[in-house]
């Protein structure tokens, strides 16, 4: 759950302090929720849900949610960049070229789902 809470916060480009102010909770509490050291109560889950426009089921992990494609692209990006090489149409790419391709994939996914602000 902490990973999803962090993803939600980062999707809005908010710091922990900014989100804490919005949710009327301490910065420390937001950090502990994200680290899994503390579990938000029902009331706090509803605040997160309403603010980020996601279900509480998504937050607690009983259903997959809107960020799964980002997680998948990030997984491929991180693992591909650790390998000895990445190719495209048989041509080896340097790290910068490979990163640009993965970033473009993420932007395309966000655009395709109508999340234009997040893509740019």
Total domain modules: 2
CATH fold group of the largest domain: 434 Repressor (Amino-terminal Domain)
Mean pLDDT: 84
CATH architecture type of the largest domain: Orthogonal Bundle
**Overall geometric form:** elongated
Strand content: 5-15%
CATH class of the largest domain: Mainly Alpha
Compute the number of helices: 8
Order of helices and strands: HHHHHHEEHH
Low-confidence stretches: 116-120
- Helical/strand content category: mainly alpha
> Could you estimate the helical fraction of the residues in percent?
55-70%
Radius of gyration: 17 Å
What does this molecule look like?
The radius of gyration is 17 Å and the shape is elongated. A hairpin with a 2-residue loop joins strand 1 and strand 2. The chain has helices at 2-11, 16-23, 27-35, 42-52, 56-60, 68-82, 95-112, 116-119, and strands at 86-88, 91-93. It folds into two domains: 2-60, lambda repressor-like DNA-binding domains (434 Repressor (Amino-terminal Domain)), CATH 1.10.260.40; 68-114, no CATH class. It has 120 residues and is mostly helical. It is 67% helix and 5% strand. The two termini are 27 Å apart.
Q: Which descriptors would you attach to this protein?
A:
two-stranded antiparallel ribbon, 434 Repressor (Amino-terminal Domain), 120 residues, mainly alpha, 5% strand, disordered C terminus, 2 strands
